[in-house]
Write a sequence for this structure.
């Protein structure tokens, strides 16, 4: 550091002619401070950095766990209380339909589509289907258990593809639930009655030895209601 030119009076020495400090205490008050230096000083205390770090970590974890990935489905699933109530099952039948919706979306929607309209030329519709809206669910239970492979006419349109069996993947309850959900789905224009657990159980036992797909003509020979 450059020292001040000799001619310049020190800031702290009294100007010439001024009264000299009388006591030793006053002289102390006039003692020079440390020279100011240019540069960057790090004034953030280490404890603050540590606490800030912990808080940031906690906040990130909190957001990660409770943020729902910022998906609108997590936060806006109900537009109104009535909307939310409508989705909560209030009876056993409601619970079966709710379960059926899950089974449908997991095991059937890939082919028959989430809106159940199927895919032209590949997968027949379940919405409004004349195979679904039958008096009893006995043919549909058989289709889900053992699959289907043959030309089949659905609502006047012919399909000829393969549906795999679900006997080993789905429980009796899963099958009763999904069939009840599909047959009673008014949004899809379906108005048929439910399938019971006992009915699925009985047909599973009766067709245990079958071990192959159904064909449409064979199914048509099964009475509409048994
Ligand atoms: C791999 C695709 C695929 C999946 C998954 C599938 N299906 Fe099918 N399904 C088909 C095909 C293809 C046909 C027509 C078969 C044929 O042409 O012989 C069919 C026919 C049907 C039929 C009779 C025809 C109609 O449209 O009404 C019903 C009922 C049915 N499926 C219900 C279901 C249910 C319930 C599930 C879920 C448990 C399901 N399917 C899963 C492909 C699939």
């Amino acid at each position: 550091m450059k020292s001040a030119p000799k001619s310049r009076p020190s800031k702290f020495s009294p100007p010439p002619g001024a009264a000299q400090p009388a006591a030793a205490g006053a002289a102390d008050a006039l003692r020079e401070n440390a020279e100011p230096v240019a540069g960057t000083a790090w004034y953030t205390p280490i404890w603050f950095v540590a606490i800030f770090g912990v808080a940031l970590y906690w906040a990130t974890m909190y957001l990660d766990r409770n943020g729902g990935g910022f998906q609108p489905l997590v936060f806006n699933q109900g537009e109104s209380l009535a909307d939310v109530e409508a989705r909560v099952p209030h009876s056993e039948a409601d619970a079966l339909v709710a379960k059926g919706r899950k089974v449908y979306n997991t095991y059937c929607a890939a082919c028959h589509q989430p809106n159940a309209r199927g895919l032209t030329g590949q997968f027949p519709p379940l919405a409004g289907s004349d195979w679904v809206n039958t008096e009893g669910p006995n043919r549909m239970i058989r289709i889900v258990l053992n699959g289907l492979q043959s030309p089949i006419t659905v609502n006047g349109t012919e399909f000829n593809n393969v549906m795999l069996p679900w006997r080993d993947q789905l429980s009796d309850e899963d099958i009763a639930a999904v069939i009840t959900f599909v047959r009673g789905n008014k949004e899809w224009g379906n108005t048929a009655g439910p399938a019971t657990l006992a009915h699925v159980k009985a047909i599973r036992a009766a067709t245990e030895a079958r071990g192959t797909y159904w064909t449409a003509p064979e199914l048509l020979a099964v009475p509409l209601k048994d």
Observations:
- Residues 107-108, 110-112, 123-126, 129, 131-132, 140, 143-144, 148-150, 152, 154, 159-164, 166, 178, 182 surround heme C (CB under 6 Å).
- The CA atoms of residues 129 and 154 lie 6 Å apart.
